[in-house]
Amino acid sequence: MKKILFAAIALSLFGLNQAQAQDDENTTDFKKWQVRLRGVGVIPDESADISTIGGNVAISNSFIPELDFTYYFTKHIAAELILGTTKHDVHTTASDISAIGGPSSTNVDLGSVWLLPPTLTVQYHFYPGKVFRPYVGAGVNYTIFYSVDEGSTVKDVSYDNAFGYAFQGGFDLMLNDTFFINVDCKKIFLKTDVSVDASNLAPGLSIPAKVDINPLLLGFGVGMKF
């Protein structure tokens, strides 16, 4: 499914690029690089399939600074790489731990984890006017999980690094030819396999889970073209 999606994205962008080729090859009045600094709200849309104890998962929201770079291949086609890292608290909800003497519906603290999710998108930029410049984009994400703190309940928690895909929409409000204000929204579709070592609660107890994180990233910031 992902291969088909990426193929469709690539064909669509190729078509847009071809349609603009005549205009772009004769157009040199654009700056090829831009950098932005944004504040980004990270809002997971989480769900999980948790073996052994059942229930679901809850992942906290976060607010982070984020730096991104964009390169324009043509006036309309660009690629953006975002760089940022975020920390989230994690716990299960409505889990059944009655088999080890606990309640049949409770939350299990799984501590916290840091995510490093570099995301590369290919964008199409519109120019309806000199000030308002919207864009759309799609691309890929690779999330690295690190600095896991398992909390005080279980012995250990591990997360598999994972690829995902992303969709994007936003706009720039030009203050002049160099500086601008940016509003951006991304949806990242991300899944990971999680393994919880709860052998401190019962001998040999391991709790595997498949977790959908699927965060929404809402950003606001300033940028500079050069």
UniProtKB/TrEMBL annotation:
<keyword id="KW-0732">Signal</keyword>
<dbReference type="InterPro" id="IPR011250">
    <property type="entry name" value="OMP/PagP_B-barrel"/>
</dbReference>
<protein>
    <submittedName>
        <fullName>OmpW family outer membrane protein</fullName>
    </submittedName>
</protein>
<feature type="signal peptide">
    <location>
        <begin position="1"/>
        <end position="21"/>
    </location>
</feature>
<dbReference type="InterPro" id="IPR005618">
    <property type="entry name" value="OMPW"/>
</dbReference>
<dbReference type="Pfam" id="PF03922">
    <property type="entry name" value="OmpW"/>
</dbReference>
